[in-house]
Write a structure and sequence with these properties.
The complex is a heterodimer of chains A (168) and B (111).
Chain A (H helix, E strand, L loop, with lengths): L7 H10 L2 H22 L1 H13 L14 H19 L1 H28 L17 E5 L2 E5 L22
Antiparallel strand pairs in A: 1-2
Chain B lengths: L7 H13 L5 H12 L5 H14 L2 E6 L10 E6 L1 H23 L7
Classes of the chains: A mainly alpha (168), B mainly alpha (111).
Chain lengths: 168, 111
């Protein structure tokens, strides 16, 4: 029985990542399981299972902690202080947060609107050359503007439109 | 009766520790669980659950009991705390109370 030894490399891996207070116990448990597996399933299967179970022991509470980062440690304090500050100046924080929310919301809405307005007619070749002929109806005392005009104007654009090659 | 908030995995481990005492350690729990519930749990799973239960105050642990099979390495022996025993009792009572209602009802597939 004493000739059976679990894989050395896996043991080294465990020694590398396990915290001191867990190492002894974990190695012992693994070895006991290994010996049982060798008896029931043979040495090769037992070694594979030893490796598999050592890798599955990479759990947060078992892993060795080399150093503790002050930044991580301070984060809880920072969060607490900011919460206290916010709740101390309720009106100012409400103004701040609401203002920021409204600002971000308007930027997003403007972006969506501009994106939509500039997305028309992109499937035509030379889509930047497209012009639209609008219509101004002059009534006594007021002018009414329409976005559309008659199809009859299509073949012969005049005036400023003379540079355009096609119109739709 | 208020049900204590522990998962079914934790419940099985608690029961295993209770039945293995005073020789309850991680690998023993694995064998017990496999024998009784047919579940194949890895060492990592059981170690984590034991650790969690100890933090909840349901288990107590001490080092000891090495053997030549483990290469002379000691094991962490777990014990139920008073609170842990009470949790198990509560769970059993809840289950028995509800189960007695289920079994006295006329279930359709008995007919």
């Amino acid at each position: 029985m004493n000739t059976v030894r679990p894989p050395k490399l896996a043991q080294q891996l465990l020694r590398y990542f396990c915290a001191e207070e867990w190492l002894d116990e974990v190695l012992g448990d693994l070895q006991e399981q290994y010996i049982d597996k060798v008896e029931s399933k043979g040495k090769f299967r037992a070694s594979i299972s030893y490796w598999w179970h050592s890798i599955r022991l990479l759990r947060p509470h078992i892993i060795k902690r080399k150093h503790r980062s002050t930044r991580v440690m301070m984060t809880r304090n920072h969060l607490k202080i900011s919460y206290r500050n916010l709740s101390k100046n309720k009106i100012y924080s409400a103004i701040n947060i609401l203002g920021l929310a409204v600002g971000i919301a308007s930027v997003m809405l403007i972006g969506i609107y501009v994106n939509y307005e500039t997305s028309y007619d992109k499937f035509f070749d030379d889509s930047d050359q497209i012009s639209r002929i609008a219509l101004n109806r002059v009534y006594p005392g007021r002018v009414k503007t329409f976005g559309t005009s008659s199809i009859m104007l299509a073949p012969h654009p005049k005036g400023k439109l003379s540079t355009s090659r096609r119109s739709y | 009766m208020k049900q204590e908030q522990i998962s079914s995995q934790e419940e099985i481990v608690l029961l295993a520790v209770g039945s293995l005492q005073p020789e309850a350690y991680a690998y023993g729990v694995i064998k017990e669980v496999k024998e009784n519930a047919g579940l194949n749990w890895s060492l990592g799973t059981v170690h984590t659950i034991l650790y969690r239960l100890e933090h909840k105050g349901l288990l107590k642990s001490e080092m000891g009991g090495s053997s030549s099979k483990r290469g002379g390495r000691s094991k962490r022996l777990y014990k139920l705390s008073a609170q842990g025993y009470k949790t198990m009792e509560d769970l059993m009572n809840v289950r028995q109370a509800m189960w007695s209602k289920v079994s006295t009802n006329n279930l359709s597939f008995f007919i």
